[in-house]
Structures are given as structure tokens and as C-alpha cells.
């Protein structure tokens, strides 16, 4: 193996050192002389009107430059379309400080700008606000009725039914039906949302923004404020977690730009942890699953309906129920998805949106059916294995889920599982084993990249994508280095800057597939130029060769497998009399080919829990997650992605909920002391298995994306294990100890 | 957070005097709770009197037992060999709370002054009688998972969040305080108070009184063998107790000579009841006996919706904790 083969080999993060030494800078850490500080004032009420707002005390404080409210703030754009972004659902857009109307609790209603953060924060507490409050509606379950989500413009695919599920259910030998619910959750990345807007001498804006897509933030700002791209450069080299929360520009960006333009000063706005609960969240859903089966466990009918929440002004949709039509073979499937408008902010995609909650309910129902028919839950899944995607009526581009089940079960020791609940115990602890399946999309988007190889053998590759902590820097460096046969430290990958070629939003687990393919193509374009120059070297051993016959290894281009035939890159470029070679490419997915197939990742999750018989305390002792995710580019960061997904799955199953007080329409546990996420002490053994999965349809790299699949299925597997341990079925997440008393 | 002035106290007496003459001044030690409250505008002192330079951080033997200086950190206390050996219940309770970083900052005296973690107390957008007397209690009809079930009042159902204090209550510690008018000693049971119609008052101290030390009585060493601190919470670390039980037994063979049981997470103060403990005097360590104690301790308990489960949970936790203590399981 050549020293410059990286794909599939464990590589430490190329940005690891910068991160642990603090050299890596985040949006709120960029400074400039004369920087001012904005502090957001949040609404106390969820619905109603501001009747009076008095900022005089705040304004009289030394160091306060301005207090912006709906009474004095500019309204730079009128039309909703100006406020649209690449991830916004259909509907009216929220426009900060445009009116006295309050549409959700903690709505930003003012921005204090001062010459220090401390003064801005203090001044914000002096602004007196009076409201005329109305009764908010925030309880999804109070009136469990909804309307169908609009289709078309949103990219939302309405769930399609097939066969006659009602009839098949009625006639089925075994019937099972249950209702499932989970609370809303918030993303809570460690890094708070922040924008530092630097007004440069020529009046142009340099904007450091926490975002999963600098191009999206730039588009948003330039449309609203009528700026050219040159006038608003957006930069975001590092991100302290996103999980989907950065798919839409958040209001601190708008407020910081607005204030910078009004005051002609550089402004930074950072949200507080409490304010991190004031925008998008994973919506609560209320779901019903009905399953009809033969006595020996063959699925005859599937019905899956979900009611999700959205705001009053936008129609947020997610794919909750469609998975029920794809996971198993079944001729009669009826799916329904409804929305109810509540007085909260619009929900927002959060790691595996829709899938993680829909599959949590559906895979619990499948487990419940397994006890009804008396068949091992893993065997029941294998019995009803879907050979093709019956929702879309297409074959899978690849699907190694059987291998996930087999390898996961072997590693876990599933064969030794006693069928009866409550049959394993250690003292006061009841032990249980559970399994669930996971499924997510394998997508590729249009993406551009640029590669610049200089005569000293250094390669700089760039694309405007983000690294939200997933390891994009590392994976792209590996792909580029391998394509041109260079050592890793000769390659610099740049991202998060709107001056770089445009990449899609960093989401949907598509970054490696999309940006990786673009990086590969750009580097290949450079390689072709190097090759043609190498042919022109005096007495070149490559003179008669075609590009397909050569490879790039250890800084050289050579005939495949023939180390003696190598011409070094430096030598070739000298011969070509160039100091650098630069190529920019835009890579499109091969839609014609891809459209013929369903493209998905799959997983099988095995869990062991212990539950205290009297006290209900739950501990997830072991998890084995077996993943079919195509080709693994960067094994180390890929494993971290799955580990992180499993940890979050544990957190989702047992701890996470954003609790609304419906009287105030307000999330009450809006801090990290009371919004519980899993801590180290909650996490025990986690095994990750990547099964072999070859796929030359999904994209040229064969990689399917691993950012989201790791969390899917975990909550159901845990709930199923808890049932096996205790004989008690909990159909509401999170499963806290009181639900087991 | 408002702007405030800051001074370092040079002596206990002068610090007490300074606060007694300025009602908007506050003492600060580790600051692990006060600074959070200031950031959220729940506390708005105009002046902070920093006690941390006072010579009160020693842990020393006295003729009464072991004395914990008010400024000894929670970490140094929990890992002090004398505490570990003679009052292991206290070590265990301290280590069940907060995080290593917080325990390094938090002081023993300050721990007594922790304020409630009731969601509404922290959120200025909602009424709260403890934060703003007379504004109303949002928790009674709202989300009250962390709130109390015992000794609550119509104006407040908040709980005291400390783990350390639950052990101190079980051990019958005493608290030495110095105020502008002199020194006095307070029984631990009288230190904190129930909310009644003055929920803004967490304890029975005067504003100018400073805790200088906490005495662990010598006879508390009887409980160094059969004890446990059982903390039930929503995650394995860094979460406040839903219910916690400090159980300590002085045993003679299989017979219980004396029992102590204190509950955390259920009331405005660590919850103890002498009659309940007396039920075990001279009795055998049996489940039935423990259930009687649980029933007695939970007598009059009232749930408010999302915390009603705590009544049953507390009963089970008491039985479990006493069983563990009797078996020498910590």
C-alpha cells in the first residue's frame, strides 16, 4: 500500500491540535478594534402585543450606544421572500423587531448595543416592557387534530399509501395498535449562536457567523439588506456543534448586521444559553401505529399516523411516517401526516429529523408485535425484510441490513436472549435486551470545490462547506491527499468562507458524498494537468501512457504499480513552467442513475439495560450499533459520528425533553442544568460495527454519509430492552424513572 | 447582571457589620450559585462582600467532634480522611452533588445557602413568591417535577437542593454563626425553614449573620458503619435529586439502637421526623419496619401533578436506603 493511501485508514483529526489548544476560533471569538456588543432582550410572553417599551434608563447608562426595538429599528425589506433561506419551510417569515406583535415566548424584542458586553447585558435588564398578553396554545395533545401539510414548494413528500391497510388490518389474525408521544427537544450545541459583524474601512461587512452554511447566511443577509456578495462576506471556520440548529440563519445574525449598519460600528451578538431555547426545536409528535399480521408474524397491514407541531407562521414538515412504508415488506400500508399550529417558534431539523422520532415509535410497535405473535424480535424483522424500497417501488442502490443484524447479533450475543420479559436479574436489577432498526437517506447534492497545487508540492483545496464537528476538514484532506498522492501535511483544506466555491448546507449527512465528490473531481482535474506536464518531461517514462494508466503516489505520477516509472509533481510542473495549477469544478449528482434507486443507510442497534426493580433507575449497560453506510472514508471520525449518535440516542430515550408550561407557553427547563443531556456517567459500553457495503450508485466515492444514522433506532432499542427487563411498556419519551414505578 | 461594587472582608465582624447596614449587599464565597442567579437577574446585589480570604477553611478536631470551617471546600471536606472515616455519610452525600469543578469552588458554609432550583424562581418572566413576594406561585399549577411534597405551603412548593445538607441533618450537625450582634449556635434542624407565607426566606438567619463553622457531633461517629446516601435523579451525575435519602443506623447485632433518616428533594429543608426514626429504636432491620418509617415520614405528603410520583418514590427509596444501611452497603 502506498504511503499516500488514506481513504479507509484511521486518521486523527487534522484540526485536532487547533481545537484543543484554542487556536481554532469560533464566531464570537474574532475581535476588531472598536467592537461593540449587542445583547438581545427576549419576550416574557408567548402571545400578544407589546403595549409599551421604555428604554430610557438603559439609554442613560454610560456606554450604551442604542436600544433597538420595534419602535425605532429599521425594516430593510418588506417581502417574506427576502427573508427566505435554504432551509425555511413555506409560510411567513419571522422578522425581528418589525412589530409589536409577539408570536412566541422569548421572541427577540430588543437589542441593546453598548461598548462592553457587561454594560449591554445590564442595560437590557433596565428596559421596561409592558404587554397585552393573550392565552397561548402550546399543547399538541390538547386538541389532537391537525391539517395536512402543504406540498410542492417545500420539497416535502407526502406519505403515500398502498394496498388497503384498513381492510387488511381488519382481517388480520393478529392486530396491534398503540399511541406514542415524545416531547420537543432542543439542539443545544455547546457553542452559543453568535455573529461578529466587522465593518471594514470601505464599508464592506466581514461577518463571522455560527452557521452550517455560510452561503445560506450570505444569501439571507444580502437579500434583506440589498447588498452585493462582495459587500457581505460570511466566514465560519469552526463550529461548536450544530445538529441542524445552524441550517437556518438565526436572529442574532440579522440583529448584528442591522445594528452594524445603523451604527456604522462593528457589532457582536451572542445568544445566552436560555435564548438557545428561543428558536427551532425538534417538534413533539403524537403517533399512532397499527399493525396487522399473520399468526406466524408476516406483516399484513401497516398504519402509521403522526401529528407534528409547527408555528403559526411557517409550515415545518418532516418525514416521520414514510419509514414505516420502507422498513419492511408489506402490501398494505396507510400513512398519514398532520400538523397543528402552536404559539411556538417554527421547529427546525434536528439530527435525523423525522426518522429518529418516527422510527422510535414504529420500531417499538414492531417489538410489541413480536411479543404478541411470540416470535423473537430480531427474527420477526428478518421475516419481513424489505428486499426493495416498497415506498418508492425501487431497488436499493445497496442494502446490507442483513449483515448489520447478523454481525450485531453475534457481537452482542443475542442468541442467548431468553424470550420472556423479566427473566434476567442481578439482585434488585432487572436486565433486558432490545433491538431496533435504523434507516436514513444517502443523498448527494450539487457542490463546487477548488484545488490549487503549487510547485513546492503544497495543495490547497477549498469549498464553502462547514465542519460542524463531524470531521469534514479531515475527510476532505484525506480525499484530496489520496487523489494527488500527497502526504496529508502537504494538503490544506479551507472551508466556511463565502469567497470559496459554493457548497450546499452542511446537513442531511450528505457532506462527504457531495463536497467529497467535488474535492475529488477538482483534484482529478489538477492531476490531469500534472500528468500532461509529466509526459512532457525529457525522456518521460509516461510519454506513451493515457491518464487511466497512471496513478498518483508519494508525490509522483507513475504507471500503475510501477514505482520506477514515477515523475515527481515538482519535476512535472517545472517542465510545464508553471508555479501552480488551479482547477475549480462543480460536481452534480448523476441524477439519471441515482433516480432509479432508493439510496439509504441502515443500522441495527442492540441494547442491554438494567432497571432497578423498585426505584425505576435505568442504566444502558451495552450498545452494539451495526451500520451499513457504504464506503467508510475516514474510519476514526466515522466511528466518532456513530458513537455520538448512540450517546444522543441514549439521551433522547432517557433524558431529553423541553418542558413547556402551557399556561405561559414557555419552555421552562431552558438551561443545561435542567435540560438533561447524557453525561459521562450515563454512558457505558458502546460498540460500533461498519459492515461491508459496496455502492457505486450513490456517488463516485461510494460513501453514504454517517452523520445521522447513528442516532436512529437507539431510543426504540432502549425502550424495547426496558420492556424485556421489566415487562412494562413505556410509549412516551423520555423514559424517566417515574414512568416505571 | 447589574453593576456592583466588590470588597474583600478582612474580618468576620466587619463583614457582618457591612452587610447589616446595607440591605442590598450580599456575602459571596465560592459563588457557584450566586453568580448564576446574578446572571439571570434573580439576585441583584449592589455590593459583594467576599468572605473567601477569612481564615475559616480549616477542618479541625474539637472537644465536640469535628469542626468544618465554613470556607472549607466541598471537595476538601468530602476527601478529608477524618470525614471519610468518621462521617462517611457526609462524604458520600457531598460527592453525589454537582460536579468535581463545582465542588472545588463551593464551600461548606455556602452550601447551606444554596437557593432552590425551581424553574420559576430562575425565570423572571414568571411569577414566583420566593423571588418576588406576593407575585404568586407558578409551580403549584405548573411544571413541578423538582418541587416539594412535604411541608409545602400555598405560596411556595420549592425544595432545598443540597445533598450535603441532607447528610448534615441526619448527623444532627450544629451551625456556628456570627452576626453584627454576636455569636450563636443553631441546631441544623432549625437552620432552614419551611416556606409558610414567607417563602422568600430560606433559613432562620439574619441577613448579617455569617456561618463560621459546622460542627459534626462526636456521637455521629456511631453511624460510620451502617449508612447510605441514596440519590435518585434524572441522570447519573450533575442533576439535582428528585428524592434523596440519608440513612444512618447505630446497630447492635441485628437490633437497631438508633436510626436517622433525612430526605432531600422533597421539601424546603432536609426532611427529618424524630417519631419516624424512633419507630426503629430497639427494632429489627426488617422491610416491614422500614416501611413503617417510610409511611410515617411521608405522612401528609401532597403531590402537585408532575411531582406526585415522588411520594411513592420516596417511600421506596427510604426502604431501600435503610435496607442498604442495615446490610452495610453504602
TrEMBL record, chain A:
SUPFAM superfamilies: CO dehydrogenase molybdoprotein N-domain-like (SSF54665), Molybdenum cofactor-binding domain (SSF56003). Residues 137-164 are annotated as: Disordered. InterPro entries: Ald_Oxase/Xan_DH_a/b, Ald_Oxase/Xan_DH_a/b_sf, Ald_Oxase/xanthine_DH-like, AldOxase/xan_DH_MoCoBD1, AldOxase/xan_DH_MoCoBD2, AldOxase/xan_DH_Mopterin-bd_sf. Residues 21-135 form the Aldehyde oxidase/xanthine dehydrogenase a/b hammerhead domain. It holds the Pfam family MoCoBD_1. It comes from the Bacteria. This is Xanthine dehydrogenase family protein molybdopterin-binding subunit. It comes from Hymenobacter defluvii.
UniProtKB/TrEMBL annotation, chain B:
Residues 1-221 form the FAD-binding PCMH-type domain. Signal peptide: none annotated. Pfam families: CO_deh_flav_C (PF03450), FAD_binding_5 (PF00941). InterPro entries: CO_DH_flav_C (IPR005107), Diverse_Substr_Oxidored (IPR051312), FAD-bd_PCMH (IPR016166), Mopterin_DH_FAD-bd (IPR002346). It comes from the Bacteria. PANTHER family: OXIDOREDUCTASE, XANTHINE DEHYDROGENASE SUBUNIT C-RELATED. This is Xanthine dehydrogenase family protein subunit M. It comes from Hymenobacter profundi.
